[in-house]
Write a structure and sequence with these properties.
Order of helices and strands: HEHHHEEEEEEEEEEEEEEHHHEHEH
Bound molecules: (3beta,9beta,22R,25R)-3-hydroxyfurost-5-en-27-yl propanoate
Distance between the termini: 43 Å
Helix content: 10-25%
Largest sheet: 13 strands, antiparallel
Length: 448
C-alpha cells in the first residue's frame, strides 16, 4: 500500500528528528486538515461542567439537581459532602477530567488515529460559541452563551493562547500552550508548557490548572494515539488541591488512559505527596479519563461513580460559515490546504501549504524592513519575575498566588514543575500569556 511505503520512509525520517515537529514531512494520510489553533475548543465541550461551580451553594438541593452523571441519587457522592469549597474542587476536577477525552482522543474518534495538526501562522485566530442550554436533559439550566477566543500569539516557538468566557455567570477560563517534543525509539514524548487560570468572579474563586505530559504511542503501527503521563494539578484559591497522576497500560492497572487524583487541603503544611498521609487526603478519584472513573472518601473503600466520559456527548462549538470569516480566521485561511489534505493529493497539499507559508514569510520580511512587528490581537505577554509585590492598585495575577499555594514554579518551565524540582530553572523567565479583555471588548471586525 502506498501509504505503508511512505510511512516507512516517514519513520526513517523521525530518527533524524531535530526538535522541530514542523520540519517532519509526514505522509498525507497522517495530516489533519485542522489547525492546532482549534484545539483550544477542547477545554469547554461540556459547558455545564465548566459552569457547575456557579450553582454550588450550601443548599444541597441545588447541587444534586445539577448532577449529570450519576444514575441514582444515593450514588450521589456530592450529597455526602457539606463543605462548599470541597464540593467546588470536586466539580472543577470533574470538568477537567471531562476535557481530556476531547483534548486527546477526538482525532482518533473522528479520523481513525491521532493526526498531525496544521501548524498555525502568527496571528491565526479561531472563535466560536456554545449554545446556552445544557446538552444534558437532567440539567436543563440556561447557561447563557459561552464564547471561545483562540489566537496563535507566537510562531517561533508555536504558542496558542485562548480564553473561554461566559458573561452571564461571570466565568472566564484563560490559558496558553506551548510544547517541546522529543523522540525516543519511535515514541514521541511531549512536555507541555503553559497553564490555565479559571475564575468564577461571582464567588471570587480562582483555580490554577497545569498540563500533563503526553506521549504518542502506535507510531510504528502507523496508528498513533496519545497517552498521558506525569502529573498535573488543580490548585484552588480556597486552599484545596487536586493532584492528578496519569499512566497508560501497565501502571496502576492494565488499562489505557488511567489516572489517580487526590483531593487534599494544602494550605496547611506543604503536603509531600510521596509521604503516605491518608488523613490529609480527603478523596481519591481513579479510573480511566476516557471511560469511567470512581471516587472514594479517605476513610471508606466504598467507591461511587465519579464521571462517565461516554455518557453525555460533547457539545461541538458552533463556528461562523467560512464566507462570514475574517482572512485571519483559521478555517478561511487554511481552506485550500484543508481541501487538498482531504483529497490526499500530496503535490496539491505541498503547493497550497507552501503558498500560505511563503505569504507569511513575506509578511515577516516587510515587518522587519519597516520595523512594524506583528501586534498580538486579544492576548498580551506579562512578566511575573518581579520579586516585589505588584504595584499598589495593580491586581496581582492569580498565577502568583495559586502557584505559591501549590508549591509550583512560576517560571516558564514544563507545566506543573514543583519549585526546586530538577526541571525548575531559576534562569528561565516568568513570562506568560494573558487575555487582554479591553482588546477583545474594542474588537470591531471579528465576532464569535
Ligand atoms: C512525529 C511527527 C508526526 O508528524 O507524527 C504524527 C503523529 C500524529 C504524532 C505527532 C502529532 O500528534 C499530535 C497530538 C498533538 C497534541 C494533542 C492535544 C493537545 C492538547 C491541547 O490542549 C494542546 C496541544 C496538544 C498538546 C497537541 C500538540 C501537538 C500534538 C502533539 C501533535 C503532534 C505533532
Amino acid at each position: 500500500m502506498a501509504s505503508a511505503a511512505s510511512w516507512t520512509s516517514f519513520l526513517k525520517s523521525i530518527t533524524s528528528y531535530n526538535g522541530d515537529l514542523a520540519s517532519l514531512t509526514a505522509p498525507p494520510f497522517i495530516l489533519s486538515p485542522v489547525s492546532l489553533v482549534e484545539y483550544s475548543q477542547y477545554w469547554a465541550e461540556h459547558p455545564n461542567l465548566l459552569l457547575a461551580p456557579n450553582f454550588i451553594s450550601n443548599n444541597p438541593k441545588t447541587q444534586s439537581d445539577n448532577d449529570d452523571d450519576d444514575n441514582d441519587d444515593d450514588d450521589d457522592y456530592e450529597a455526602d459532602e457539606d463543605n462548599i469549597d470541597v464540593k467546588k474542587i470536586l466539580a472543577v476536577t470533574k470538568w477537567f477530567i471531562a476535557t481530556l477525552k476531547s483534548q486527546y482522543c477526538s482525532r482518533n474518534e473522528s479520523m481513525g488515529s491521532e493526526k498531525k495538526p496544521l501548524n498555525p501562522f502568527l496571528g491565526e485566530l479561531f472563535t466560536g460559541k456554545w449554545s446556552s442550554v445544557s446538552k444534558d436533559p437532567k440539567d436543563s439550566k440556561d447557561l447563557g452563551e459561552t464564547i471561545l477566543l483562540s489566537e496563535q500569539v507566537s510562531h517561533h516557538p508555536p504558542i496558542t493562547a485562548y480564553a473561554i468566557i461566559n458573561e452571564k455567570h461571570n466565568t472566564t477560563l484563560q490559558g496558553y500552550n506551548r510544547i517541546k517534543a522529543s523522540i525516543y525509539t519511535y515514541t514521541l514524548s511531549v512536555k507541555q508548557f503553559g497553564h490555565a487560570i479559571l475564575q468564577y468572579k461571582n464567588s471570587n474563586d480562582s483555580y490554577l490548572i497545569t498540563l500533563p505530559g503526553l506521549h504518542i504511542e502506535g507510531l510504528l503501527a502507523a496508528s498513533p494515539f496519545v497517552e498521558l503521563d506525569g502529573k498535573s494539578y488543580i490548585q484552588s484559591s480556597s486552599g484545596y488541591l487536586s493532584a492528578i497522576e496519569y499512566s497508560g497500560r501497565g501502571y496502576f492497572s492494565g488499562k489505557k488512559n488511567t489516572f489517580k487524583a487526590k483531593i487534599i487541603k494544602n494550605n496547611e503544611a506543604k503536603i509531600n505527596l510521596k509521604k503516605k498521609s491518608p488523613e490529609k487526603i480527603l478523596y481519591t478519584i481513579q479510573g480511566q479519563w476516557s471511560e469511567k472513573s470512581y471516587i472514594s472518601k479517605y476513610n471508606s473503600s466504598a467507591k461511587k461513580l465519579f464521571y462517565d466520559a461516554n455518557l453525555i456527548k460533547p457539545e461541538i462549538l458552533s463556528v461562523k460559515p467560512i464566507e462570514a470569516q475574517h482572512p485571519l480566521e483559521s478555517r478561511k485561511a487554511w481552506l485550500d490546504v484543508a481541501e487538498a489534505i482531504k483529497s490526499g493529493d500530496y503535490d496539491l497539499i505541498h503547493n497550497k501549504k507552501s503558498k500560505l507559508e511563503n505569504d507569511q514569510r513575506e509578511l515577516r520580511k516587510i515587518e522587519i524592513e519597516n520595523n512594524t512587528p506583528w501586534k498580538n490581537r486579544w492576548f498580551t505577554e506579562i512578566d511575573l519575575s518581579g520579586k516585589e509585590l505588584p504595584a499598589l492598585g495593580q491586581k496581582s495575577d492569580p498565577f502568583t498566588t495559586l502557584s505559591t499555594l501549590a508549591n509550583l514554579s512560576k517560571n516558564d518551565v514544563p507545566s506543573g514543575t514543583p519549585i526546586g524540582d530538577k526541571e525548575d530553572d531559576p534562569n528561565a523567565h516568568s513570562k506568560h500569556w494573558r487575555l487582554n479583555i479591553d482588546a477583545y471588548k474594542n474588537e470591531s471586525e471579528i465576532t464569535p
